[in-house]
Amino acid sequence: MFLKTEQIRESLEPLKSLHPFYGITFLVCKKAPLPIGDTIQYPINAKETEFLEEYFKPEKHSKYFYQVFKTSNPSKRWLSPKYPSSGSQSTRTRGDLANAFIHPKNTDLWGWQTNYVEILREHLNRTRVELIPSFHVAVWLYRERNWELNTTAEDIVNTFLEEFLVSDEEKHLFDCSIPQDNVLEELFQNEQITLRDLQAIIGKPPDSVPEEGGTLRFLEIQGVGPAKKLVFQPGERLTLITGDNGLGKTFLLDCAWWALTGKWAGLQAYPMSNTKKNEPVIGFQISGDSESESIRVSYDWQTQSWKPPKKRPTIPGLLVYAKNGAISAYLV
Questions:
Q1: Exposed e or buried b for every residue in 246-271, given b needs 16+ CB within 10 A?
Q2: 319 Cβ partners below 8 Å, 6+ apart?
Q3: Residue 36 gets which letter from DSSP?
Q4: Cα angle value 52/38/85 (rounded, 5°)
Q5: Model confidence band, residue 249 (pLDDT cutoffs 50, 70, 90)
Q6: Contact at 8 Å (CB) between 1 and 192?
Q7: Who wins on pLDDT, 211 or 237?
Q8: What is the per-residue DSSP string for 232-254?
Q9: Using one digit for the tens of pLDDT, what is the confidence trace for 197-220?
Q10: What are the tens digits of pLDDT across the range 79-95?
């Protein structure tokens, strides 16, 4: 069993407020493991690079790493190969976090100060993150792992704590419970998340080779239509949508048509009457787009229309929409 694509998407949200030190450098140092009150010879730049290669490079042929944690520029989440020796090195050798280490300058000697847990806890508080979200960090790190049948969310957290040698004292830095928000009732799917499905969530690295053509890879409708939130991920070649009349089959395809063309086939979709002002959103991603980050469009209550996206992907080829009272379909 593999973690569901939608769970990976949900777990990325809480990670965006966590300082990258706790999801990268701290875990790399735990793997060493660094001694407390003493030092060992440890090539930390090289070890961080290995860690990033294993867990933060979704596209193996790319030179870039994907930053799931807090960043000064959320629109630029792809890290260059120099990150361990530049941005990350600056974090662990300067400022508050440097005080957690014993590290003589210009050496590869590293160790923890005896009060490092206290220092890290104070830093977490200053960043307005009370605890490291163990479950969500584990979901990202283990997104490609094949789990045994009957594995629970608690098992995933315990595996994470054991594999990274988190001590009882260090557990005070972590939220080891299973949060109520951002966790699905059904965590697993039969197949490992594909690169395309992951790209629909995080986009592509700057050096990714553009695809030819384009198809709808993902559609999210929130605060609109028959359900408060609906996520639609079409199949690679053919998708069949069935159900009784009035459940929203045509509505779903109307939104798909709008995402692909920027035009409504009939009447536009309107928000539910009980939705909050900022709630109505239509999000989509089209494969083959050189900037394949998911596009999210909000509703403009003043003009009673959907705000046009800043940049809509251009789709080469033919788009056909066939519709009657019983059947609706579109073909790219």
A1: eebbbbbbbbbbbbbeeeebeeebeb
A2: 257, 260, 261, 330, 331, 332
A3: B
A4: 30
A5: confident
A6: no
A7: 237
A8: E---SS-------TTSSHHHHHH
A9: 999 899 989 988 655 556 788 899
A10: 998 898 888 888 898 88
Q: What is the pLDDT of residues 92-136, one digit of tens each?
A: 988 889 999 999 999 999 999 999 999 999 999 998 888 999 999
Provide the Cα torsion 124, 127, 133, 139; round to 10°. -120
Check residue 321 and report its DSSP letter: E
Report the amino acid identity of residue 310: K
Contacts of 187 (CB under 8 A, 6+ apart): 3, 4, 7, 151, 153, 156
The answer to whether 189 and 167 have CB atoms below 8 angstroms apart is no
What gap in Å lies between CA 82 and CA 88, rounded to an integer?
Answer: 9
Whether a cis peptide bond, with omega within 30° of 0, leads into 234 is: no
DSSP string, 170-220: GGGGEE-S--STT--SS-EESSPPPHHHHHHHH---TTPPPPSS-EEEEEE
Q: How far apart, in whole angstroms, are the C-alpha atoms of residue 52 and residue 123?
A: 23
CA 261/CA 4 separation, integer angstroms: 29
